[in-house]
Amino acid sequence: MIYVLLSVLCSVLVSVLLKLARRADIDVGQAIAWNYVVTSVLTALLLQPTPASLREPGVPWLALAALGILLPTIFLALAASVRHAGIVRSDAAQRLSLLLSLLAAFALFGEQLTAPKGIGIALGLLALLCMVWRSGHGTAERGTAGWLYPLLVFAGFGVIDILFKRVAQAGVPLGASLQAMFALALLVAFALQLWRRMQGQARFTARSALAGLLLGLANFGNILFYLRGHRALPQHPALVFASMNLGVVALGALVGLLLFHERLSRLNLAGVALALLAIGVIARG
Question: What is residue 10's three-state secondary structure?
Fold first, then answer.
C-alpha cells in the first residue's frame, strides 16, 4: 500500500503546485509544457519503452493523437479549476470522472451494469451537482468559472480515461503508449506557448521552467507509483482503485480546507462526502 500512498501524495501535490503557481508568479502554461519534457525523459529512462511496438499494425494513432491534445489542454483546465474552484472540488471532480469511463464501459465495451455500480453512478452524479452548485458566497467561487472548470475537469479526464482504455485494448505496451502520448502532449503544449509568445502574451522564464520540473516529477510519480501499486497487489485491483481515489479526495479536502482555507458551503461539503461514498460503492461493486 506504500505505492498507493505515494501516488495519492503525488496527485495532490500536483494540485498544490498549480494552486501556488500564481502566487509565485509562475506561468502555468509554460510549467505544464516543461512538465511533459520531464515525464517524457523519465518514461524513457525508467519504463524503457520499445518504440518498435508503435510500428505494429493496429496501433490506435487516432486515440493516441487525441490524448496528445487532451492531456495538456485538460491540464490547463485543471489549473484553472484549482484557481477558481479550489483544490477540494477540483480533485473530487477529477476522481468522479470515473463515472464517464464506467458509462462507456457499459455502452461501448460490453460490461454488465450491476446494482452497486448503478447506485454508485447515481451517487456520483449527485455528488458532482452538489460540488459545483454555487452558493452565492465564498472566495473560491468566481461567477461561472466556479462551476464551469470543475465540469470541464470531470468531462476531460473522463474522455482521457476512455481513450486510455481504447489504447490498452489495442495491446500497445504501456511504456510505448505513455512515451507516444507524452511526446505528442509536449509538442502541443509548446506549440500553444509559442503561439502565446508570438502574440506577446507570455515570455519564457527560468522560474516557470523550474516549476515545470517539479510538476513533471509529481505528475510522473503519480503514474509510476499507481502502476507499481497494481503490480504489488495484482489480486486486489479494487483495493488499489478505491484507496487511490478515496485517498485523493480525502487528502485533497484536508489540504484545501486546512492549508488554503478554502470556503465550501454545506452543500459542497455534502458533495465531497457523497463523492467518497460513490467511489467506495463503485469499487465494492
Answer: helix
Cell, residue 172: 500497445
DSSP string of 136-193, one letter each residue: S--TT--TTHHHHHHHHHHHHHHHHHHHHHHHHHTT--HHHHHHHHHHHHHHHHHHHH
pTM: 0.89
Q: What is the 3-state secondary structure (H, E, C) of 208-264?
A: HHHHHHHHHHHHHHHHHHHHHHHHHCCCCHHHHHHHHHHHHHHHHHHHHHHHCCCCC
Q: Tell me the pLDDT of the chain averaged across its residues.
A: 89
Q: What is the pLDDT of residues 202-239, one digit of tens each?
A: 888 999 999 999 999 999 999 999 888 878 888 777 77
Is 1 in a helix, a strand, or coil? coil
Give, to the nearest 10 degrees, the angle between helix 98-107 and helix 115-132: 140
- Nearest CA to 180 out of 44, 82, 74 is that of 44
Confidence band, pLDDT 50/70/90 cuts, at residue 251: very high
